[in-house]
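Batch 3, record 17
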Amino acid sequence: MPARLIDGRALAAVMQAELAQRVAEQVSTGGPRPGLAAIQVGSRQDSTRYVRGKIRACEKVGIASFHHPLPESTSQAELLRLIEKLNGDASVHGILVQLPLPPHIDESVVIRAVAPHKDVDGFHPENLGLLAAGTPRFVACTPLGVQQLLLRHDVPIAGAKVVIVGRSTIVGKPLALLLMRKGEGGDATVTVAHSRSRDLPGITRGADILVAALGQPGYITADMVKPGAVVIDVGTTPTADGRLVGDVDFDRVREVAGAISPVPGGVGPMTITMLLYNTHRASQIQSVG
Ligand code: GUN
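Prediction for the assembled complex:
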């Protein structure tokens, strides 16, 4: 029997409708309208598409968006000046700098320049550190989206064996921290594996929940999946003809897995949704002072 489909598009629509209501309530009771500034340097096709999707989603839920498209030739100093200005702008509660940046710009310097209380991407070391310390403020959007996909599809996380393939600072590492926390949505036994792990199929076959986040199309094959396992595909590699492909061999793995998220329409819409949630939370945190 083919696996149950974990439909991120449908869940994102439900969660965005919930959020739109909360934003409307906040604004109608005199609270601030949440505002998100989105900076894109250069014109990579995939980045343009992501940023456009994020801005469109802001409009849908009533979040104000401030788009800052900058030319590829923008210097690091110019970018840092813009971030500094947005850090001090009270109508901007969240700042996202779309990655990757052109090679002449040091991403880690830019990530550290965003005020931690406006870092709705959760990439600043202060926010990563808070998550590691067990007192998260902003958690990266993709890990949050994966956790919500599992929770809202009633996938048991507590006590489950989770294998995450991929150790990036944006996905693998924060997701591991999130799923091993104590309490709801956590309490999992987490293994972080990667392309250099010895006997990767042996490790992935032990997973009740397998998360593929290494950015290599079709890397996770059916023989790497335990029958009945829940498979979440974080991969989004753009193809030459403009499609997105995941890290999982979807057609074959769906014959083995118990549940599986597709690409597109799985994690991607949830990442955007969690960005909106973080921006709303940022507006609440900042209005309290
Ligand atoms: N590039 C790929 N994923 C992301 C993300 O979640 N946020 C930002 N800012 N850039 C990305």
